[in-house]
Amino acid sequence: MTYYYTNKIKEELGNNIKQSRKKLKKKQVEIAVDAGVNPSYYGKIERGLVNPSIEKVFRIVKALRVKSSDLLPF
Length: 74
Known about the structure:
With 74 residues, this protein is an all-alpha fold. It has a single domain (2-71), classed as 434 Repressor (Amino-terminal Domain) (Orthogonal Bundle), CATH 1.10.260. Helices cover 73% and strands 0% of the residues. The mean pLDDT is 93.
């Protein structure tokens, strides 16, 4: 069960980040650079393939100019 929930959280977080980025009409690389995150890794975050640290999530939140509660699926 834990595996399922972990994947679901990563997927929802990635989707929320992607939707927020699209609202800003920005490219992945722009947000990645603003957040100080490797663009390749940022793409994996959006696709829900990795489990980013809270530090990286916080930097992405700031780059997207949203509240963390807008992105976190819990």
